[in-house]
């Protein structure tokens, strides 16, 4: 075997090995959040030795000898960094830009931890659903109208909305995760693209969960009356608090209350094209009945096609997630255009924001 062929074989074998076990990265990340390691390191001033970390995390003594192996994996994965020890001293672990996103202290990142988001996407529902992907493709759930629309349904006998409705713990974890991610995204949108809210006096966040998005908008633009429309099982657990946001239990497929603007953040990617058209048609009725000249719909979602490799990988990974979990999809520009036209909208504008996401202004 030639040297070049031998090198290619070695590299390919290594890549295959890493891909085969890449699910362990997700599990290690979930473990980091559960063990509170980023907060522990932050509380030690942003760098901590292994003995310091061991003294602060809640694990039994007989498990502590295993922690160095987890920490080494976290360093190799880029979740933490490590300064090798000098003679007579302990090496120190440091937070990276990634692990700073998992720190609760808002002074370090401005919006709080994304730890809840990690936990919301590494649940038993998500992980076990992915193991059904090949069976789903091969049609081992049967055929015809009884076939499962998604691997999630094969794994759990119901879709994600059904699971959220009957498992309150899953419902709380899931909505807390989406809320934590919303704060980051909306803080960025408000700071960099605040002009999308010009001329808006009322906004309805459809599928807005705990209201994190609506609250962020209201804080930045106090004159905008913000409301959330979501399913009853979501609204029932929410404590209205200070009255900054109104909560409405309802179904976006049936009716959407009149409003100047509608926010759809991470909503349309959950649904197939036909369902998206139905949702957008309800949105069009709502904004046109409120403003004769027509309002607008603000969509925060993925527009597949980033020229940057890491961003594109995040986009297509999210698309695969939608196929597994929700039966929806991430869309490229042509696919977005198709559902906009079919919904009766005349014009729209796409602006890339925060890496792999975009904000779409959809005008009636």
TrEMBL record:
Any GO MF annotation of the entry: O-methyltransferase activity
Q: Does the keyword S-adenosyl-L-methionine apply?
A: yes
- Identify the coding gene: Os11g0303600_1
Tell me the lineage of the source organism.
Answer: Eukaryota, Viridiplantae, Streptophyta, Embryophyta, Tracheophyta
Chain ranges of the O-methyltransferase C-terminal domain: 143-346
The record's Pfam families line, in alphabetical order, gives:
Dimerisation (PF08100), Methyltransf_2 (PF00891)
Query: Could you tell me which Gene3D superfamilies the record lists for this protein?
Result: Vaccinia Virus protein VP39, Winged helix-like DNA-binding domain superfamily/Winged helix DNA-binding domain
Any single biological process term in GO: methylation
List residues of the O-methyltransferase dimerisation domain: 17-104
Keyword Translocase recorded: no
Q: What is this protein called?
A: Flavonoid O-methyltransferase-like protein
The record's listing under InterPro entries reads: COMT-like, COMT_C, COMT_dimerisation, SAM-dependent_MTases_sf, WH-like_DNA-bd_sf, WH_DNA-bd_sf
Please list the residues that make up the active site.
269 (proton acceptor)
In which organism is this protein found?
Answer: Zea mays
Keywords for this protein: Methyltransferase, S-adenosyl-L-methionine, Transferase
